[in-house]
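Re: that chain you flagged

S.,

Sorry for the slow reply, it's been a week of failed gels. I finally had a moment to sit down with the sequence you sent. For the record, here it is as I used it:
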Amino acid sequence: MTTPAPAAAPASASASLRPFTTAHFVLAIDGLASANFSTCAGLSGEVGVEEYQEGGENRFVHRLPTRASFPNLVLGQGAGPLHELWDWFHEYLVAGIIAPRDGTVVLMAHDGGELAPVRVWAFTRGWPVKITGADLDAQSPAAAIDSLEIAHHGLALRRVV
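Prediction finished late last night. Pasting the structure tokens below so you have them in one place:
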């Protein structure tokens, strides 16, 4: 007895099941121009765990949730003409005041031939804690890459409408 071949999924269904590529994403920060980046790390969160050993209970240790924590966002981009991110970092050096801003990292993917947002991570009260200019090397034709590190108070994955 032979088993029938599974029915092929419609083209639109198989396309929607493919994972997104990470090739194009945008950083948007309140009050600053949006910027394209080539790398982004730190889109994660973690809840700490505290262990409690109850007297007389030897089968297991109670594990209780504690505070949530979020690593800094670390973004890299080709060095270009935008100076707003450097100016944002420089505000602290000049005025001595941190100016936290909300922002998003938006993953873009091709949807019907056009780039459209497919994932949006929103951070709250972020501020630049480290900015690095490109490493310069006259012997290398590599692209000049600036990096920006942003500390923040939380990260959430928003629904794309």
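What I noticed first: Strands lie at 24-29, 35-37, 39-41, 46-52, 62-69, 73-78, 101-111, 114-132, 145-151, 155-158.

Talk soon,
D.
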